[in-house]
Amino acid sequence: MNQEYELNINPLPAKTWNWLHMNGTSVKSPALLENGTVEQTVPSSVEYKAASENKADAAFSEIQTGMGTEMDGFLKSGDVELRFYTTKSQTSEKQPLVLNFTYGTGRQMANRLAFHLLPGSELTVLMDLSAEAESCGTAALQTKVYAEEGAVLHLVQVQRLGKGFTFYNDIGAKCEKNARVETIQLVLGGKNTYLGSRSALEGESSVLSSDVGYLVGADERLDMNFVAYHTGKKTESRMDASGVLRENGFKLFRGTIDFRKGCAGAVGNEKEDVLLLDDAVVNQTIPLILCEEEDVEGNHGATIGKLDEELLFYLESRGMSEEAVYEMMARARIDAIAGKIPDAGVREKVRAYLGDTQDEEK
Fold first, then answer.
1. In what order do the strands lie in the sheet with 236-245?
2. Structure pTM?
């Protein structure tokens, strides 16, 4: 019998009222003892090793993630190998590092990744997370990033999982002086999705840029926890989320900008834009700013609403059905984020998944 774990994940850095049930999430999950299937294309300037071939695990274990320490222990208990990638110093790699994850139905699979960006290097990482449309199972992916001085990482994750899948996607990053981490995440499929991301902006003028797009439908759940942890001077963070909720879908977004003592001149911005397409959806949003430093600037906000009645009437009067209008508006949210993906092939996969096979404009 597969052992089951009870996990407390996605904790808020500072607790709010318990009756809101937003301080964290408790889940039960089977043990993930099988390494996920992944096909990779690694540029020549990037060195790849498995965990058994290096001693990096101890150093990367110090990097905290959005899901918290229990997720670290959970993955290590399953003896999931660490796939370790190191860039070449002062090298801007033009070819992306491509990782295609395929999850089989009824499987319990996990992967752990570590990216070490040496000073002055730049790398784009494209991750495609896919499974058959009607499949079910449990999968987890943990990504840790150490960006040294002046390094830049562009990380893209596209989730296209089956209707019965539970997926844990956990990210942790540490940025030195002038380092930059940019993430784009699209959640397009899966029954229960848990996203966690924590970026420690320790070096002066380090930057985090995060974009999340999601479609949450019937009986689906999306639970997110994003944290920008500012300790370095003149650091910058931007966390934007945009999505659509349908039928009885559930979404919880936690976004925290944490200004610690000594981060003078830091700037943090977070916002969420949610379109509600049904009365039965459950939408929870908690933007949070914590501050121990006076000379900082923090901004947060959320726009939550339904489709404008006048716009709906106008489009219907032009021959579009209400369902077609909703579908168009939902796709527009995803297209706005997908357009930022720096790879035409990945953008086309997103369109194909959404049922739009039209040729991309050149």
1. 37-41, 97-102, 122-130, 152-160, 180-187, 207-216, 236-245, 266-276, 296-305
2. 0.93
